[in-house]
């Protein structure tokens, strides 16, 4: 059925409260959208990450009396009379199909493809990871994930052990296994990420070679030949002592989730233990790689 949409501009301090008020007026859903296309990192579990300038968008049944909704909102201390807004009619669509059409097979490096289950595999002879968008972050669409996948495709993983620190959907660990790694270890602070990684590993036939741990439960003496961490610049700096001990001597480290303006400070946190390579950049995001000192 058709819908009515109202769009209001807000900010990080009151967007959630405004969203609650919109739900009280009868909205069936409320979403937040960056009004200036500002890059935003994945929120931590339980956190709602909002932008400095945020469009709050509410969806109503087409039969809703929007004059009544506007009257209610004008009484809100967050808005007041004459607040700026935009009301639009939204056509009826097959929203599930619309969502699915946004995802398609993607190639990373020379051999690796990430493919949603409802699409045909473009190259059956390639290394194909079947991965659908789900509970946890990571489908290959974000430049940071893309940078990590391209790096994994370009290094020799045959027979190696790989740690995916902050595994999310498990995309990097699963890709490493399908690229030849003997064993992968996924670590995350979010139980949903562990569930998603396990499910995706089973779908790709690599679950027997993947070990998964909540960060609080990971073994103390854990080490690997290759360590990849696609998280946030702040945690990468703060956790440098913990992450730096994970690669063996001569092992490889790959870090992402870092904007170009943050790359130098993140790299500096690891220089004492690693020979840092030139930084790779894609769409304002960066990948930092290095080799562990002997």
From TrEMBL:
What one GO molecular function would you report for this record? protein-lysine N-methyltransferase activity
* HAMAP family xrefs: Methyltr_PrmA
Q: What are its E.C. numbers?
A: 2.1.1.-
Q: Which residues form the signal peptide?
A: none
Write down the chemical reaction(s) this protein catalyses: L-lysyl-[protein] + 3 S-adenosyl-L-methionine = N(6),N(6),N(6)-trimethyl-L-lysyl-[protein] + 3 S-adenosyl-L-homocysteine + 3 H(+)
Which annotated residues bind S-adenosyl-L-methionine? Answer: 145, 166, 188, 230
Keyword list, A-Z: Cytoplasm, Methyltransferase, Ribonucleoprotein, Ribosomal protein, S-adenosyl-L-methionine, Transferase
Per the record, its GO cellular-component terms are: cytosol; ribosome
Q: Which domain of life is it from?
A: Bacteria
Origin species:
Providencia rustigianii DSM 4541
UniProt-listed InterPro entries? Ribosomal_L11_MeTrfase_PrmA (IPR050078), Ribosomal_PrmA_MeTrfase (IPR004498), SAM-dependent_MTases_sf (IPR029063)
CDD domains linked: AdoMet_MTases (cd02440)
Q: Does the keyword Transcription apply?
A: no
On whether Ribosomal protein is a keyword of this UniProt record, the answer is yes
Q: What is this protein called?
A: Ribosomal protein L11 methyltransferase
Query: Which GO annotations describe the biological process of this protein?
Result: methylation
Q: Give, as one word, the top-level EC class.
A: transferase
This protein's gene is called prmA
């Amino acid at each position: 059925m058709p819908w009515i949409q109202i769009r209001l501009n807000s900010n990080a301090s009151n967007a959630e409260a405004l969203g609650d008020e919109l739900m009280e007026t009868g909205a069936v859903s409320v979403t937040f959208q960056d009004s200036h296309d500002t890059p935003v990192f994945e929120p931590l579990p339980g956190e709602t990450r909002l932008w400095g300038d945020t469009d709050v968008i509410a969806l109503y049944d087409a039969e809703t009396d929007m004059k009544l909704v506007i009257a209610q909102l004008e009484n809100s201390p967050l808005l007041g009379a004459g607040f700026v807004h935009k009301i639009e009619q939204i056509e009826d669509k097959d929203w599930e199909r619309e969502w699915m059409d946004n995802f398609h097979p993607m190639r990373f490096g020379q051999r690796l493809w990430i493919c949603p289950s409802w699409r045909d595999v473009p190259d059956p002879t390639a290394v194909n990871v079947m991965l659908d968008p789900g509970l946890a972050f990571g489908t290959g669409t974000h430049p940071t994930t893309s940078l990590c996948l391209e790096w994994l495709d370009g290094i020799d993983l045959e027979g190696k052990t790989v740690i995916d620190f902050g595994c999310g959907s498990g995309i990097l660990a699963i890709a490493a296994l399908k690229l030849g790694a003997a064993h992968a270890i996924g670590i995350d602070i979010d139980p949903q990420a562990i569930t998603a990684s396990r499910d995706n590993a089973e779908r790709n036939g690599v679950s027997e070679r993947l070990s998964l741990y909540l960060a609080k439960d990971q073994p103390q003496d854990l080490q690997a030949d290759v360590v990849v961490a696609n998280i946030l610049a702040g945690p990468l700096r703060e956790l440098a002592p913990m992450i730096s001990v994970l690669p063996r001597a001569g092992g490889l480290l790959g870090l992402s989730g870092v904007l170009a303006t943050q790359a130098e400070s993140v790299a500096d946190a690891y220089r004492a233990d690693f020979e840092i390579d030139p930084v790779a950049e894609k769409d304002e995001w960066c990948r930092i790689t290095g080799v562990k000192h002997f």
